[in-house]
Amino acid sequence: MPPSPPPHRPAPPPPHHPEREPRTAIEGPETLADGTAVLRLRVRAVPENGKANAAVIVLVAKALGLPKSAVALVAGDTARLKTLHLDGDPEDLAARVERLWGR
């Protein structure tokens, strides 16, 4: 009788990276405990060497239809809460943000 094949072993699960988000997306508006309105984003990029900050800029620029050069990080370089500056006509930018905000 021929030898039986080795038992089937499932593939090991992929490595878990708790600091990495599964996707890059805009989740929508959110109100913080202090009443501040913010836009919740998730980025897949790791928070090292500015990669996550760059991903935030690319995501916001794309969502608003702006060039990356029109979006700048002005506060929160190493924090979860970021403040961005949008360069352009204030009325046009307000309309774009309102559409993104879902209002």
TrEMBL record:
It comes from the Bacteria. Residues 1-31 are annotated as: Disordered. InterPro entries: DUF167, YggU-like_sf. Residues 1-15 have a biased composition (Pro residues). SUPFAM superfamilies: YggU-like. Pfam families: DUF167. Belongs to the UPF0235 family. NCBIfam families: DUF167 family protein. This is UPF0235 protein Rumeso_03858. It comes from Rubellimicrobium mesophilum DSM 19309.
